[in-house]
Structure formats: C-alpha cells, structure tokens
Write a structure and sequence with these properties.
By secondary structure, the protein is of the alpha+beta class. It contains two helices and five strands; from the N terminus they run αβββββα.
C-alpha cells in the first residue's frame, strides 16, 4: 500500500486537492455528503482548478472509490493531455 493509499484509508472526513502539470487534477472527498461515506471516496476531475465533466475518465463525479481506485484514477488524470 502506498503512502497515499494509507492516508486515504486512515483519514476521517477530508478534502484533498491534487493538481498536475497538465492542468488537470482532482478533488477527493470523504464526508457525510459524499458518495461512499463513511469508508469510500468520491473524486471529481478538475481542469485549471475548476470541475471538469468532459474527460475520457468520466462525465460526472466518481463515487464509492477505494483508496486503490483513487490512486488508479489519479494516474489516469495525470496522463490526460
């Protein structure tokens, strides 16, 4: 398990923002209003710090993600061009 995966597995209600050099990123949340609470994660793709609903990854938010699912999705976001 990576450090990110361990952090996601152990964290209480949180929001994590990730940004890559390609301008894309992610907003990752787990709180009482997120899809998958209390044990799973919700992720939204961002572009230039705004929510982005037009990528090959998704046209909506992704819910019910495991820490491994979050890590896999982040790799896909990092590879966007």
């Amino acid at each position: 398990m990576t450090t990110l995966q361990q952090t996601l597995a152990d964290a209480p209600e949180v929001r994590i923002k990730v940004k890559y050099e390609n301008g894309y990123g992610a907003s990752i949340i787990r709180n009482s209003g997120s899809y998958g609470f209390p044990h799973l994660w919700e992720l939204a793709v961002t572009k230039d710090d705004e929510l982005c609903y037009s990528t090959a990854i998704t046209d909506d938010v992704l819910g019910w993600l495991t820490p491994e699912g979050v890590a896999t999705t982040l790799l896909k976001i990092k590879a966007l061009s």
